[in-house]
Amino acid sequence: MFGPIASLSQLNRADGSASYKCPATGYSILGAVNAPIELPARRDALKPEEATVEVFVKPGTTTAGVGERYVEGILRSVLGKIVLGREKGFPRRGVVITLAIVGGENVERGDSYLTILPALLHAALLAMISASVPLSMTFSATLLGVTKSGDIVRDPSPTAAKAAVSLHVFAFSSKNHLLLNESEGRFEFDTWELVRERALSICQGVISSDGDVTMDEGTTSASLNGFIRETVEDQVYSDYAYKLDSI
Amino acid sequence: MASTTTPSNPTPPSLSLPPSQFARLQPHAYLLAHLSPPPASNQPSIRANGRATSQFRVTSANAGSLTHTNGSAVVRIGDTAAVCGVRAEILHTKDIASWSVLQASAEQKFDKSNETGVPESQDEEDKGHIQDLNLLVPNLSLSTGCAPGFTPGAPPSALAQSLSHQILSLLHTSRLVKADDLRIWYQPPNLDSEEFHNAGEGMEVDTEESGGPEREIKAFWVLYIDVMIISLAGNPFDAAWASVLAALRDTKLPKAWWDADNETILCSDDVADAQKLSLRGLPVSSSFCSFESDVAAGWRAVVIPDAEEQKQKKGAQQRWILADPDGYEEGLSQERVSVVVDKENGKTVIVKMEKHGGWTVDSDDLRHLVDVSAQRWDEMKRILDQC
Amino acid sequence: MSKEAQLSIAERDFILEALRENVRLDGRQPDDYRPLNISFGEEYGHVKLQLGKTNIIVRISAEVTKPREDRPFDGLFNINLELSAMGSPAWENGRTNDIEAYATNTLDRIIRHSNALDTESLCILKGVSCWSIRADVHIIDYDGNITDAACIAIMAGLQHFRRPDAVVRDGRVIVYGVEQRVPVPLNITHKPLSVTFHTFNDSKHVIVDATLKEEQAAEGDLVIGINSAGDVCYLSKYAGAPADAMAIVNKTNVAWEKVKEINAAVDKVLQADLAKRAKIGMADESRAENDRLVQIE
């Protein structure tokens, strides 16, 4: 299996941007963040002590509907919690996150939005890092499906996701907190715990008894948290290449 | 506000503000004071609205309140009230642009399943029809004045749209409504014709046995499920979903058939002929929020401990998980948990579980919340059975 | 922020002064476009277009729907352009602004109303089912001239797109998946493109493909929609200072040259992409054949 592909800061106009592509599910997301930015039209909604986080999801080949509003709500609540909105320059201003679905199948009306949620989360996180929005932590998210035979499948394709008995999205912070869980289908709590464990190992790598993180998930892909870190490191490296050369 | 119902007044006597004003000025401190009374005072930890942490508000339901619908219900959870009306409309297959296309793909699917020897399960076909043809159309509106801030003439708010999606998505994933209840069939008279072989195969065993021409789907019932929140005092989803559930249990569809002579669908006006929907299970939703003690304390420097560290010194960083939060409590917490459970032969099955907006709730708490939700299921079943 | 940052007086004067000496800020001639870069995604009809720093993604999609009651023989074709805060911080999500309305209108007139995509060919079964083609334009970086850029991207997308094959058998429509039958290209009748001019200094200086700064400094604009054969299908002098009538006539010739040039460039990229796909397709086929051979053995 191929790991995800991501890159930072490709757009000129937005304060920060990132693209994220998950080959397994086929989704490709382009994220842009403008922050901190004045929101004159939203004056009523602005908070006196904090930044207002706004999320906008733009589907690739349809107009946005109720499903987008729902997933925007989830993203807003997850991202709003990790943005340090009380830092200087942020109160009474907006953090506007725009996510365009530029590749992959459409999420039809009434379809589950879970399949695309991890990609949206990652694109939003990387775009915020690219825009230098102060964050309390980073995170990584994964989608898991439980098949009829009880197997746990990582990143099922949209067709496989439809056939799955239950679907689960987990997001873990870099410090192992469970930030988000969305599960649907029919399952028991014991199954859920197994899935949670698997998700944690995908996101953080397997933690062996001596406390070292080993890259055991699959053979090709390291942990997702490691992937996020590497993507950012690559960008920093290329941004400061001129300094490195002069040394 | 709910605070006026507080039975006890834990504010120190030196403070000369009435509790209702304190609740408005310092909402976080007010709720925190209720939940963590000083150890000397011998007061129990209780929510500002007088409920215990895992106690739901008084719930009532009444079905069949509206006369011009096929099914309806009013559900009230505390001060949150939802009305739901279900209206059934006929959708002719000839009006569905993708109908014949759909048949083609179904045919292929059927062929494939024959090859591999795995029969298509009834469930999957159900989900396909209901979802692809949009046979369930829920819409939720937050009516003007249901809470301060809902002004007339405003477009559907993000909250209303998101709740509509949640209802639709839960209707689909729980497979509550059976597609077979929504199909209107035509059984052609036995004329030895072999032209009707395209109609949905693999589900009607009886006609195959009789050897006659196959039944054909001529139309579908489309259920328009309209939910109106007439009063919003926190936790709208539980109330809205309960009203949808009660209304669908109340829904009766008239007997309908295809009249070949008039080439149209006829419905019987005899109430005795009308059939109730046969629903799959009874998924009940329970929502919670997590109230943290130190939101105000961590004003500027946000220090987040490791998940492991946090577990060890749980006492220091206190938080309470409040069941069925009212509007006041929702405003003071960001982390939400929602669990939808069903029971099959006494065994609890989770249909949907979601949590977001924070990092204090993890598996141990969720396990407990599933148990709480299972208890709530018993209570809701009793209430819905009586209505 | 709901307005683009205004051009400073110094910047405006600098641009105008330079134009008087026939110099543009990026060194282009008045009739030069910025470097145009078009590439295609994995899916059919997924176009990524860069015109200088203006960056656009277009996705074409098709679905079967019911035709309109009054036009039972016609399929549907829609162009959807929605500006989001991604393209420019000045654009607010979920709110329409003037640029959006203007660009949508222009694109509609040039591509849709000139019947560049033959909608009758989209009919599957009269009055029952037809194809609905949708072009979604995502402006992800805005540096002026979105109309021309979007127009090129949509036309490239329509030529690149392949819809699933559909046949009617016994009054039933059968749509074949991409893996069952080779998908079919859309029927393009002609290839109109828009060329936007901006006028400066009492229409003494007229340039094509203005950047955002040049747009802000301009006194008026002129849009000409024209195809490779030289048929004008749209002409708009929408707002701003009056322009010289002869200049408009002269510029039509410039526009025609530009359209021929751009269409040739698009053709080249399209052919290259098709050749690449054919190669991959052949490789897949031979692999499938090998698999079959193995099975027989």
Automatic annotation (TrEMBL), chain A:
GO terms for molecular function: RNA binding. GO terms for biological process: nuclear mRNA surveillance; poly(A)-dependent snoRNA 3'-end processing; rRNA catabolic process; rRNA processing; U4 snRNA 3'-end processing. GO terms for cellular component: cytoplasmic exosome (RNase complex); nuclear exosome (RNase complex); nucleolus. InterPro entries: ExoRNase_PH_dom2_sf (IPR036345), PNPase/RNase_PH_dom_sf (IPR027408), Ribosomal_Su5_D2-typ_SF (IPR020568), RNase_PH (IPR050080). It comes from Penicillium coprophilum. This is Uncharacterized protein. The keyword rRNA processing applies. It is found in: Nucleus. Gene3D superfamilies: GHMP Kinase, N-terminal domain. Keywords: Exosome, Nucleus, rRNA processing. The keyword Phosphoprotein does not apply.
TrEMBL record, chain B:
The keyword Cytoplasm applies. The keyword rRNA processing applies. One of its GO terms (biological process) is exonucleolytic trimming to generate mature 3'-end of 5.8S rRNA from tricistronic rRNA transcript (SSU-rRNA, 5.8S rRNA, LSU-rRNA). Signal peptide: none annotated. Residues 1-20 are annotated as: Disordered. Gene3D superfamilies: GHMP Kinase, N-terminal domain. Its main location: cytoplasm. Keywords: Cytoplasm, Exosome, Nucleus, RNA-binding, rRNA processing. GO terms for cellular component: cytoplasmic exosome (RNase complex); nuclear exosome (RNase complex); nucleolus. SUPFAM superfamilies: Ribonuclease PH domain 2-like (SSF55666), Ribosomal protein S5 domain 2-like (SSF54211). It is found in: Cytoplasm; Nucleus, Nucleolus. Pfam families: RNase_PH. InterPro entries: ExoRNase_PH_dom1, ExoRNase_PH_dom2_sf, Exosome_comp_Rrp42_subfam, PNPase/RNase_PH_dom_sf, Ribosomal_Su5_D2-typ_SF. Residues 55-254 form the Exoribonuclease phosphorolytic domain. GO terms for molecular function: mRNA 3'-UTR AU-rich region binding. Belongs to the RNase PH family. This is Ribosomal RNA-processing protein 43.
Automatic annotation (TrEMBL), chain C:
Keywords: Cytoplasm, Exosome, Nucleus, RNA-binding, rRNA processing. One of its GO terms (biological process) is U4 snRNA 3'-end processing. GO terms for cellular component: cytoplasmic exosome (RNase complex); nuclear exosome (RNase complex); nucleolus. Coiled coil: none annotated. This is Exosome complex component RRP45. It comes from Penicillium coprophilum. Belongs to the RNase PH family. Gene3D superfamilies: GHMP Kinase, N-terminal domain (3.30.230.70). InterPro entries: ExoRNase_PH_dom1, ExoRNase_PH_dom2, ExoRNase_PH_dom2_sf, Exosome_comp_Rrp42_subfam, PNPase/RNase_PH_dom_sf, Ribosomal_Su5_D2-typ_SF, Rrp45. Residues 33-164, 192-241 form the Exoribonuclease phosphorolytic domain. Its main location: cytoplasm. It holds the Pfam family RNase_PH.
